[in-house]
Amino acid sequence: MSAHRPTLTRAANAKGRDAVRTVANRWLRLAVWLGLLAPVLGHADEADNKTWSISPLLGIHSPRLTGLNRGEFQAPLPGRGLIVFPDTGESTNFDFTFKNSLPEINYGADVGIEFGLKLDPVNTLLLGTSVWQGGSTASIKAEFPFEGNLTPVGYERSARLSYFEYFIGWKRALLSESKRYNVHFRLTMHEIFDIDYKEDMVFGFQPPASDTFKRIIVMQSHATGALLFQPALGAEYFIRDWISLGADVGYMFSGKKVRLGNASLSTDIQADDNLNFRTPVQVGADGKLNYLANVNSYDDVTYRRLDLSFDGWRAQFSVNLYF
């Protein structure tokens, strides 16, 4: 973003290279996964009694998200407007800084579906997909210089982060009684390949002599390619021989942080509004996101790269249907 009004930022060449790289990485990982599955499925074909299951999932994931929660969410909003003195017609710049911190996203809900193939009495192959989402909203009332006058304004800031994943894994029964209960260990590998982040800043101006109107700044970004592993412990209780209730608790981890990219920043603020901002998040020349880390004045600010970690605890509940 420039030193003045936020504008729509595009990085077409970088996006094209990222898209090709993303597709290639997905096919490579899928080929590796299928290679790992081949001997397991071959063993399953030889089993005398294969049992399939379908399990709707509902859970909570608590990713660390330090870059958002303790970085970008805490960033203030420095601005510069123009004050006009009606008696003389003279004007002067008016700098201000408002802090409207977003509450941390400590957890979010995920929903999905899981398929299981029982290879033998204790081992089960798992394959599934799920969607996770978390959000945060905050608002304050303040006064901004607008069209030459200090004007009451409501400043609402909201953020939403979501991802889509698929996973594959293995479950082993540690303690069980057939068709009554089991206690198990599971290990899964998760590919998060569709991460979306959106932040809206809405300004509702309330001039004393006219109706309320709004100005909006919107930031959107996207990232792909996070690979995580999750060991977990769980239990399952059978209501009937074909249906059970399950719960699992585990910790997802990865050695890689995610950088949000393919970003754009747009606004409907007009030139004659005489209002400029240093937004809490900025789109860099490479199309990736940076956050406002330090403010000395409107003309002296520091931005740092925004990295995300999805490591964290995860709990899931399931209804398991066997056939």
Keywords:
single chain, 323 residues, mainly beta, Porin, eight-stranded antiparallel beta barrel, three-stranded antiparallel beta sheet, 2 helices, 18 strands, 12% helix, 61% strand, elongated, disordered N terminus
What do you see in this structure?
By secondary structure, the chain is mainly β. The protein has one domain: Beta Barrel (Porin), CATH 2.40.160.20. Helix content is 12%, strand content 61%. The chain contains two helices and 18 strands. The strands form four sheets. Strands 1-4-5-6-7-9-10-18 form an eight-stranded antiparallel barrel. The termini are far apart.
Treating each run of at least 4 consecutive H or I residues as one helix, how many helices? 2
Approximate shape: elongated
Characterize the largest beta sheet: strand count, sense, and whether it forms a barrel.
Answer: 8 strands, antiparallel, barrel
Q: What is the C-alpha radius of gyration, as a whole number of Å?
A: 25 Å
Number of strands: 18
Task: Write down the secondary-structure element order.
Answer: HEHEEEEEEEEEEEEEEEEE
Report strand %: over 45%
What percent of residues adopt helix (DSSP H or I)?
10-25%
Query: Which fold name fills CATH's third level, the topology?
Result: Porin
| CATH architecture label | Beta Barrel
Regarding quaternary structure, how should these chains be classified? single chain
**Would you identify the regions where 5 or more consecutive residues have pLDDT less than 50?**
1-16, 44-48
By helix and strand content, what is the structural category? mainly beta
Strand order of the largest sheet: 1-4-5-6-7-9-10-18
Work out the count of structural domains. 1
CATH domain class name: Mainly Beta
What is the residue-averaged pLDDT? 86
